[in-house]
Design a protein that fits this description.
The structure is a single chain. By secondary structure, this protein is of the alpha/beta class. Among the domains are: about 10-150, Rossmann fold; about 160-325, Rossmann fold; about 330-415, no CATH class; about 430-515, Arc Repressor Mutant, subunit A, CATH 1.10.10. Helix 25 runs antiparallel to helix 26 and helix 31 (about 690-705) runs antiparallel to helix 32.
Length: about 900
Amino acid sequence: MSQEHTSIEVFCSYAQADEAWLLQLEKHLSLLQRQGLIKLWQKRRLVAGADWAKAIDTHLETASVILLLISADFLASDYCSGVEMQRALQRQKVGEAHVIPILLHPTDCKDAPFAHLQALPTGAKPLSTWKNKAEALANVAAGIRRAIEELPHLTAKAPRSSLPAIWNIPYPRNPFFLGRDELLTRLHDQLQAGQVMALSQPQAISGLGGIGKTQLAVEYAYRHARNYQAILWVGADTHEALISGFVALAKLLGLPQKNEHDQKVIVQAVKHWLKTTHLEWLLIFDNADDPSLVSEFLRSLLGGHVLLTTRAYAVGSLAQRVEVETMSQEEGALLLLRRAGLMEPGTSLGMISPAERAAACAITQELGGLPLALDQAGAYLEETRCSLISYQQVFQQHRMQLLRRRGRFSQDYPFSVATTWALSFERIKEQSPAAADLLCCCAFLHPDAIPEELFTGESSRHLGIPFQQVTCDNFAFNEAIRVLLTYSLIHRDPQTATLSLHRLVQAVLLNAMPEEQQSRWQEYVVQALNEAFPENVLQEWTRCGRLLSHVRVCVSWIEQELLPSSEALSLLEKTGAYLQECREHSDAETFLRQALAMRKQQLGDQHPDLARCLNRLSALSYQQGKYEQIEVFAGQALAICEQFLGAKHPETATSLQGQAIVYRMQGKHKQAEAVLVRALAIYEQCLGTHHPDTARCLSNLACVYGLQGKYEQAEESNRRAISIYEQQLGTHHHRTVLYGWYFLGELYLAQGKYEQAKPLFERALVICKQLWGTESLETMVCLSGLARVYLEQGQYEQAKPLFEQAFAVRERHQEEGRYGEAAFLFHGLAKLFQHEGNYEQAKKMYGYALKNLETREGSTLITKQEVQRDYATFLRLVGRDAEAVLLDTSQEEPPDEGDSVM
């Protein structure tokens, strides 16, 4: 480049003992010095006889960047830490310099005056602790390069020598710009990829309105101004704007044709200048939302770089697309706080209180990380001086007013979020009513991962006749998608066949929609989701999972906004059943209770349609350990089934299973067995011998057989259940794991067949962790089972860590029932502590186990009598024979009446 640029002066403050580190750092900064980007000064440059104090003070006052080489020697030096560092921090505070601490050795810097500044190397890991010192120094050099590139020295008020001679960027550099380093680097690398500008492909910065495309282009221009001799800007939202922009360029370039009446002549003259000039130039087309308009202006351009900003997703061969995403939570919080004047530039989130940081992150999440929305929020906070917490409350109550409000001093982009998107919505309605309908439908779903089958499958018939005509035709559907992609209002993932959109797009859409239209779309969406949500949640597990987040959105307004339609009630019940199987008990109960209340309101307390919901609530109560509710729900369901559905109906069989659970809780195992045998016969007759409901009944029957010591019958029933589960649901389904392999392992454990039990518990544990993670109660149960195998084999060292993991999980889920499973764990721990001689802990665990079995049993084979027997043995061991005798007496089981009430 022929034009000279002003280098940034960098001052190094260091202790004499650390001079070796300074010399190494200088080597790594040599490239920046040769490029003319920095001029490094440190006191080693003083010549003999110079007034060293005056020279140091002079350069300390003029440097734009000040490096503090931190070590114990530096902090111990009165001049380094007492004079140089203090003055550097004063200049940083008033915005005169940028201070960068560089950590040389491990030092306690927690309360140091510079602790609020971002230190180097990355992660504040001192240089001396890196295994590869060269890598550490390169990391520091890269950090310094980033810092000097981001310095606001090239602003609108910068001297002309700092900018190219030919320059018409209409915006000043944004002092609040942050992040996006990866995108800026990518743009730079791709524009430079051809090594010579003639070979560079235009780059298109693409994304949603308000995502920061224009700001990214502006920042690129200022940051890389020294690489060009001309940087040119043209508005490209319309053909007229393009023509007008090229006319303005002709005047800027002083072309002879600048006053021609024929504008085509002027455009050609500018293009000729761009093609033939030897200057290195950058041409930016802003708001090129219709790339076809720009194509004729780009034709045959050589010799420079071209950058476009566009909402269009597809730019074809015109340019290489670079998509701008929303900001991360940390970046968004920083932008918000700096824009609001609550943080100084250069400071990190660690310098504000945890409460403020959490509030800033919450606002960022609420605004979906959209830079324009965050800028608006920051402007509001700056102008009103309200707190972050207060803004959150105001936003919840007056969302649209705030989304429409632009800061008074926001000259770089005067439109608000709401205005920006409202203009796009209007254009979409004009171009494609079908695309507008598709967008409206998406406004009533979760913004992420919207399955396309909602619009292309059978469920689309509920979305209104005009819209249905589009969704039944793949070509028409793709055309509607294309229009929305033109404005980047949605994203389409072809791999998962899903759509997504920004949550604030939904908010603006809903606000602009009349109430009558909202109600109509709500009804459409509920009907479509009910059609799409499978009846058999067990056998269509994946499909249920794809729809769940969207059903949750609907449930939030079904009761308030809609009449309790049959579709809404069906959707609530099916989703509740799925959540029950997913072990999301709280949400499942909410959905099922809401459905039951609405059905009773419609149909009364005695109607056959109530039976299914009551049975599901009965089974859910068992899973939650709410045993007092089981008898209520099971009894109501059985009475309705017998009165309205008859003795041979599958729902009657389900009610009988609920009744069997009640008998089992009461210790009436023979009666439970009789009821389950009857239920099994109904299932086999009505649903067949290979239905999942038949398998569930076999699993319950196996448990009752096991509690009675009928191990052969228990194993036979359980193996039949496993065969059905594996065939119908697969080997990784939770019913196969818990009701199949795990319980078979318990049967083997009860019979002392430890080598057969162990692989079953291990297999169940692996899949439980995959399905629910390491902190679930299901994982606790599997850990307990495997630990019991090791315990009974005398392998105490292997048993102990498994028991400890299981106990830690149980401690975090104390209020979630599962008392029988908890008793199984505590009983095993008691026996382990007893073996170790830790009698105090053993006694405590026996007590826990008995307390959990007072009136309840779980799905395990542990019984109160078994725990009492082992506890009595323990009491005799510790010399408490009298208490043992009392336990022996209480172990006498009440007579188990064999006659069923059925």
